[in-house]
Specification:
By secondary structure, this protein is of the alpha/beta class. It has one domain: 3-Layer(aba) Sandwich (Rossmann fold). The chain is built from 6 helices and 9 strands. The strands form 2 sheets. Strands 5-6-4-3-7-8-9 form a 7-stranded mixed sheet, with helices on both faces. A two-stranded antiparallel ribbon has the order 1-2. Helix 3 packs across helix 4. The termini are close together.
Amino acid sequence: MEQLELDVKAIIRDVPNFPVEGILFKDITTLLADPILNRRVQEAFNENARDWGADVIVGIDSRGFLFGNSIATSNKIPFVPVRKKGKLPYTTIEQHYDLEYGDAVLEIHSDAIKKGQKVLVHDDLLATGGTALAAAELIEALGGVVVGFSFVVNLSEIGGQEKLKLKSENLFSVVTY
C-alpha cells in the first residue's frame, strides 16, 4: 500500500449511522484540516487530470467541490459543478439516480459542457456508483466525453467501480476499502 493511502486512511474518521441508520460514513473533514496531507492528495488528483487529458473537471455536489475546483484551477481548466435539483440558477438538464440509502436528482447547466470536451468527474466517495454515473450521463447528454473518475475514497466491496467502467476505464481513488 502506498504511503499516501496509509496516511489518508489513518486520518479519515468513521461515523456510524450517518446520514441514516446502518451506514458507516467516511468523514474526510479530518483530511481537509491537515494542509500537508491535503496538498499531497491534491497533487495525486492533479497528476491524473493531466495524464487523462481532461479539458474540464466536473465536481459533484457538494464534497466533490472541495478538491474538484482545486484540480481544475491547478490544471488551468474549467470547473463545472453538478448539483442537487434546484440549486443551479440557470437552465439545466437533470438525471435521476439511486443512492446507497435512497434516490435523488442531479442537474448541470445546459451550456456547461461543449461537444467533444474531455471531462474528469470528481467526488469524495465512490460507493454504488450511482451519483458518478448520473453525472457521466449528464456530461454525455451535453456532448462531453468522460475520460475518468477520481475519488478520495472507494468502498470497493459495494462495487460502484464496475458501473463506472462502462463510461471510462480510468478510475483513481486515494483510499480503497
